[in-house]
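step 3/5: co-fold with zinc ion
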Amino acid sequence: MLGNINSETMRATNLQVIFDYIRRNEPASRRDIAEFGGLTVAAVSNITSKLLANGLVVEVGAGESVGGRRPTLLGINADCRYAVGIDLTTKQMKLVITNFKAQIIYECARETPLDRGPDVVLAEMAHMIKTSIQAIGIDPQKVIGVGIVSAGPCDPERGIMQSPPNFPDWGDVPIRDSIQEQTGYPAIFDKDSVGAAMAEYWFGKADGCRSAFGFLINRAGVGGALLVDGEVFRGFRGGAGEVGHTIVDIHGAKCSCGNYGCLETLVNEQRLIREVSTGLKMGQKSTLSVVEDYDAITLKQIMQAAGEGDTLCRDALDRMADYLVVGIRNIATLFSPEMIVLSGGMISKYAYFAKIVVEKAKQRQREKFVKCMNVVECSFHENQCALGAIALVLEKFYRSIQLD
Ligand SMILES: [Zn+2]
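step 4/5: write tokens
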């Protein structure tokens, strides 16, 4: 099978396999690695000795003997490298710094000065990166890069944000190059929905899933990303995954993308608030009817009332969940992913909504053309996207490791 791959490529591939195995299964013995990768113990030892010499891997004790000497176990050297991940939203810039095992060692957030335009936002972001690295006193030379994720559309190859509707008048912004120039660290820019899915594949429940689809459900938008064997399926010019703009109601309201009845016009904070306030104005019974200004009702109030059993709020959320489940079912029918992961503020902050969506999705699993309906909530909640940015940085670093 590997006949026409040259030995250089094969060694690089073995290195990835070995390193990835240690990362996912540590502590790991050379024998386990060899068995997993279909390699000889000698070939594994040859590569792991170089990983040890480079300080990327460390010996972490002895395992059980299977006859003879007890094997030395290997693990990732947590403090040999660090990565920075940032989730940029219209509201805030959330930053996390992790060690080489993707354990968070520092986190902070700052309000996004959205009205002051992209130059000011990126200057503040760069400042935040540099001061955070200083604050925890790690060696800046050990920082392998900065990952930034934000709303789509974007061009991940060139690291450019492409006029997302929620960032009014920003136009195309070269986020990757700007942060690279201002901080001196290699940077990556990608969609937040890609980050959310990658975090789950690299560090969460989708570990080992051959195919997974991530939904990112925020107050004003629904994003998506399909992962196949851990790789993001990009489609032509990176356009794949935009599940929020699949049409679920041809007679629906106009969407920011120009179409009508897109999923994200129906799974949407403003729409939900409108529905509840209209109900209140029509005199429907609700605990929120005591509120003075029906037009000033908030998402938080609706979620809280629904959690406490309020029928008006529950019915409105039920309808929103039904639309989201149509989107989930469409994805399950099209791609049959092993796992569908739900993340984003609407899921992480509001347990009642997350619960009804998962329940409703699971009721659909007997449909003939839906072979798998394994819907789960994300693992990292408010840090999901920032950790996804970390996954993008680590992935790029792992691919580029050279030992000779
Ligand atoms: Zn749309």
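step 5/5: annotate
The chain has 13 helices and 16 strands.
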